[in-house]
Amino acid sequence: MNASIAGALLLIGRKLLTAFAQLLVVATLIFSVMYIMPGDPVLLLLGAESNPSPEAVASMRSQLGLDQLVLSQYFTWLWNALHLDFGNSLTNGYPVSSYVLANLPRTLELAFAAIIIATLIGVPLGIAAALKRGSMRDTVLTSIATIGISVPVYILGTLLVLIFSIKLGWLPASGYTDISRNLVEHFRKLALPALALGFGLAASIARMTRSSMLEILGRDFVRALRAKGMPERRIIWQHVLRNAAIPIVTIIGLQLGNLMGGTVLVEAMFNWPGLSTLLVGAVSARNYPLVQGAMLAIAALFIVINLAVELFYSLLDPRIRRKRS
Amino acid sequence: MLEVRNLSIAFGTSTGLKPAVCGIDFDIKPGEILGLVGESGSGKTITSLGVMGLLPPNAVVTGGEVLVDGVDMLKRSPAELRKLRGRHVSMIFQDPMASLDPIYTCGDQIVEAILLHEPIGKTAARKKALELLEKVRIPDPERTMRSYPHELSGGQCQRVMIAMAVSCKPRIIIADEPTTALDVTVQKQVLDLLRGLNQEVGAAILLITHDLGVIYEVADRVVVMYAGKKMEEATTQNLFANPKSDYAKALIDSMPALGCKHARLPVIERDAAGNVRSVRPEPCVRSARAGPVPEDANGVPLLELKDLCKSYWVKPSPLSAPVEMRAVDKVSFAIAPRTTLGLVGESGCGKTTLSRAVMRLSTPDSGQILFKGTDIAKLSESAMQPFRREIAMVFQNPYGSLNPRQTVADLVAAPMVIVGEGTSAERSKRVAYLLDAVGLPKAAASRYPHEFSGGQRQRIAVARALALKPSLVICDEAVSALDVSVQAQVLNLLKDLQLEFDLTYLFISHDLSVVEHVSDTVAVMQKGRIVEYGPADDIFAAPKDAYTRMLLDAVPIIGVDRAARRAQ
């Protein structure tokens, strides 16, 4: 028993180490992309049209630390980033970390709300379709899922706004209210963007659930469970679903990770002040420290979520727990 | 106790109902073991699933009744049926590893089965599960309770399945090919266990198998099925001593049995009227020979292994240092040209690792592989090229080893295309020649693998192996996935081709009777080592090694008993 606990710890340790290495690689990429990109942030900052004097440019350069060796800039940046210090915004001088920390929870909230909606819709639909394979119900559900995957999120979003806020007037069309100011209003404003994101994801979760369930339903042990005299409902919930869970959890985790940077359209459409909004604004303003900070935050969230999913696998499947370590 | 009356089952297809079982009758008395024997597709498994009420959705019962203690199972509601399952009638399946849920411990699964039918607490159920595991004589029952199925061997998993099947003292146990996936020695233990439990628990057993040897060992009475129909029902003694139906006769004939070696095996044929009979086909002598007979190179073996070693590094637990697992440990043997070496051993003994090393699909750690006198053990991939043509392989699973998207012509021509041999026209001529040699019609060339039966597919695989005129063919369990009568056909074919194409075979199998039938020399492998090696006749007549004797004793034998035969 001790050996298996030690094995589990070792597994977690190794995964953490891999995650850290991944983060380092991503950080390096982000740093170098910023460096390779055309356009001089100093000129941009001083206003290229005003033809700044070479002295002013030079003094700004040294102020930003851009006159140092690239390698030393890189290590300084990395070291600061490790301490959650991404420098200051070029436009107003506030620390980047304060922006990131303010916007990150909003994106996380939106993403989690969307994924919960997607799971609550997708998994039951997938199960329902799998249990009546080839029936009318299966065909209808599978077709809905296909349509759900293929409809772009902005069309779905527009439809939702048309129906729920313009026609029915139930929900606000866009905006954001802080949770501390008005709890109910906060969630009312969350509802439409989360639904718009969630529907599309629900479709692919439903498809994955269906195919994964069908695969497990065809396994020998399901027949053996029936031969034991186990009620069908218990076979489905206790045995089939848990065996089918790994690909489902994988796709949910992947989508959650993708949502970290993939909420751009929805955030823009519903005026939701999340990480993507921050990133888009920073890119168009060439606010390099802010871009780097926001990108690093998105990448870090993605890696953390993937790590969590992988660790969750081993809870689900003893074979991964004991064999792959 | 169980009476099956005139049971008919059909599969619903797009063209209407296709009968799978037609009017089967049999009954089982308490404490009896009834064998249900037949080849794949004969309807034996469907019959058993019909009895359990577990037919797949596309199968329907078209007539008859299944009476358990006088009550018709087919007329019960699904809920009533479910209560009977596991309690009155329980089942043991072919693949024990796949029949257990991989994500629950074995203990949990037995406890679950007990709690389904008995009103006792969890602690009491655990205690009972532990007793059951002791009863099925599993080593270390405590640990087995905590183990997941993948941590146990196939034999241990089957014991867990049996423990589960007897947990609620069922009246009838249906065992569907319970030992087919297991090694002979494990098979013997499981059969002994089943027979012991049958006497102890008093349950009747319906034993379904394609293996006549297993039937002979344990069954009291036998029902022989063919194409959904009952061919014969007799006591075991009577069936083997004096089979009445032509099919039963043919089936018994076509089985290669230990101790009686024929030049050729009889095969089962159907005549135009649909009657079956056993024929012993003449060797097919063909006018056109493949080429001039190569001269014997003064007794130099075609293939010789000297102290071949191949290890894997495995970690017994996550924290321990990797330890060396010698899959092939100082193996030496030689195969003379145009002879067959049979390599036998149980699963995990290193047979396949050895064949992969000889094919140079992996590089051996040390030792020599002398092929026609050249050591190929350490040759580079490019230096290996000319030898690749000389060595071909036929795999176990004819369903998995043929690409389903290619036509037979493409499949057979593939090796020639890879080495860039001949023009397209020459290649199709060779394909036609090879298909003819393995006994397939010309029209086969343009068809796809799924249009062929298992035996025909194995013929395609053999034709492909011969495409480059190899001198050594490695058959890795080449007939293990086939029915006895089909197996007989393929074995006969391999013998014919050996003469015609001057082939040398390395024939790998776990089946001792097949190996005895085909081999000139035999090597017995255990845990990576060759424990016994010599002429086939000597080894089967007087095995010297204890392991060889154990293997031979574990094989169920029909008819005469072994001691008497050995005395002859």
Helix content of chain A: over 70%
The helix/strand series of chain A, from N terminus to C terminus, equals HHHHHHHHHHHHHH
The number of helices of chain A is 14
Largest pleated sheet of chain B:
6 strands, mixed
Low-confidence runs of at least 5 consecutive residues of chain B: 286-295, 560-568
Compute the number of strand runs of chain A: 0
Q: Which shape of chain B, going by the Cα principal axes? A: globular
Strand coverage percent of chain A: under 5%
Characterize the quaternary organization of these chains. heterodimer
Q: Distance between the terminal alpha carbons of chain A, to the nearest Å?
A: 15 Å
Radius of gyration of chain A: 24 Å
Description of the structure:
The complex is a heterodimer of chains A (325) and B (568). Chain A is an all-alpha fold. Chain A contains 14 helices and no strands. Chain A is 79% helix and 0% strand. In chain A, helix 5 crosses helix 8, helix 6 (136-150) crosses helix 8 and helix 8 packs across helix 10. The longest helix of chain A is centred in the middle third of the chain and has 36 residues, at 96-131. The radius of gyration of chain A is 24 Å and the shape is globular. The model of chain A has no long low-confidence stretch (mean pLDDT 82). In chain B, strand 19, helix 16 and strand 20 (504-509) form a beta-alpha-beta unit. The longest helix of chain B is centred in the middle third of the chain and has 18 residues, at 184-201. Chain B is globular and about 75 Å long. Chain A binds chain B through residues 3, 6-7, 10-11, 219-221, 223-232, 239, 242-243, 316-319, 322-323, 325, and chain B through 52, 54, 82-87, 90-91, 93-95, 98-105, 112-113, 116-117, 148, 150-151, 161, 164, 317-319.
Short structural description:
Chain A is mainly α. Chain A is 79% helix and 0% strand.
